[in-house]
Specification:
CATH topology: Rossmann fold
CATH architecture: 3-Layer(aba) Sandwich
Shape: globular
Radius of gyration: 19 Å
Bound molecules: S-adenosylmethionine
Oligomer: single chain
CATH class: Alpha Beta
């Protein structure tokens, strides 16, 4: 491992805003078997008190990389707490260092595999999740996609009723796949667009008038209905005005950026889209994206 990385890891250990649990803190051996099972971490249900010292809403960015989106959101909304989650310590270092130096009270980072995410958050502890330029996992197991039914099931365990998932991606494949999951499960769509900087956003089925969702005018998500708590506003302006590290790179490459916001509420198990999603068609349509590994900077 390079000297630079070692230095970052050493510094990471000093950042109060960065939680880096060992796998042993969230994984137990199943007695009499070689299998491991997930165990709750002590911070679960306690982020407000232990990390932020308040009970403001909590928003996650999963796969936050260097954390610049998490920080940009936190600067825009000081009344909301933001937690960036990633497995790569050298990337998290950048965001955690900035948040520490600037003494940002509403930013934290968690170093973990997203597969373990429900060990860290209790029921109703999170208001929204951002999936920003997630690795699309074009081949292999569908379960590896961060918007698969398996992951939505994990998120539902800790999202508030009416909690929002935002997907922002350059991958048309991942966008269409996620749309299929949303449709087969009858989830409420708040806003969507397959080329947001050229075509803007369309209102989802929850909004009374599609003119409410315009390129830069904030809209408020629907008020609580049937006991559903009100989530923080769906800040549409942020979708256009705040760009992630990877997003800037993809825009320079001329790739369209897609966005989909939906509510996770759903009774019973989530269904897989099956044939409702045309894997071969959207893989083909991915075009130049297919040859791009999503990991251009292995050192990152
Ligand atoms: C393409 S980068 C996007 C980073 C950032 N969101 C952005 O847009 O600039 C994807 C990030 O997700 C992280 N990641 C991917 N799969 C993960 C997983 N299963 N658990 C934790 N982090 C993961 C990677 O380490 C990487 O930093």
């Amino acid at each position: 491992m390079g000297h630079g990385k070692l230095k970052k890891f050493a510094e990471n250990a000093t950042f109060r805003c960065l939680l880096q649990p060992d796998a042993s803190q969230v994984l137990d051996k199943v007695p009499g078997s070689k299998e491991l099972r997930l165990r709750d971490h002590a911070i679960k249900g306690n982020w407000g008190r232990e990390m932020f010292g308040n009970d403001h809403p909590i928003v996650l960015e999963l796969g936050c990389g260097k954390g610049d989106y998490t920080i940009a959101l936190a600067l825009r909304h000081p009344e909301i707490n933001y937690i960036g989650v990633d497995i790569k310590g050298a990337r998290l270092w950048k965001g955690a260092k900035y948040a520490t130096e600037q003494a940002l009270p509403n930013v934290a980072f968690l170093r973990t595999r997203i597969e373990f995410i429900d060990a860290f958050f209790g029921p109703g502890e999170v208001a929204e999740i951002w999936l920003t330029f997630s690795d699309p996992q074009l081949r292999g197991s569908e379960n590896a996609r961060l918007s698969s039914p398996l992951f939505l099931e994990r998120y539902r365990r800790f999202l508030k009723p009416g909690g929002i998932v935002h997907l922002k991606t350059d991958s048309r494949y991942l966008y269409e796949y996620t749309f299929s999951v949303v449709k087969v499960n009858g989830l409420q769509v708040l806003a969507y667009g397959s080329d947001i900087y050229h075509e803007g956003l369309q209102a989802g089925n929850s909004l009374p008038d599609s003119s409410d969702v315009m390129n830069s005018s904030p809209v408020i998500s629907s008020e609580a209905e049937g006991g559903v708590e009100k989530s923080p506003a769906l800040d549409v302006a942020v979708v256009f005005e705040v760009q992630t590290f990877y997003e800037k790179m993809f825009l320079e490459m001329g790739l369209p950026i897609t966005y989909l916001a939906f509510c996770i509420d759903h009774e019973g198990p989530y269904a897989f889209p099956g044939e409702a999603f045309d894997h071969d068609y959207w893989l083909e349509a991915e075009g130049p994206r297919r040859s791009f590994s999503h990991q251009p900077n292995k050192k990152g």
